[in-house]
Design goal:
By secondary structure, the protein is of the alpha+beta class. Helix content is 23%, strand content 38%. InterPro entries: 4-hydroxybenzoyl-CoA_TE (IPR050563), HotDog_dom_sf (IPR029069).
Length: 139
Amino acid sequence: MTFSVPVLVRGYELDTQGHLNHAVYHQYGEHARWELMRAAGIAQDKFIATGVGAVVLESTIKYKRELRGGDEVTVTCVMDWTEGEKVFRFHHQIVKLDGTLAAEITVVAGAMDLTARRLVADPAGHFRGLAENPELLGL
């Protein structure tokens, strides 16, 4: 299932060439991830109250087309789980209104026990137990 959220490229997010600053792509992905979690019924405070926090272990962007101020985009978010792994992946596409793919982001993440400072062994089970709509998370 593909989740998406609309975003408007704002002027203060641009670099000196008038393009969307590279770091902001990461912020768009982060925004989409938390909106997906919220839609699934897992607000940030609910997640943190379990003593577990989400951690990004790796984030890769493939830039396809430039984005400029005023561009309207859709940021997609799909979760990918592999049974028996402590990590999972988020796949994002940033797509302009005309259908042009502007960027692809892949994030490797984990769910960290905030006391033990270790990744939980079954992150899918943790998310499934918290979610009101686990199907949005690919579970």
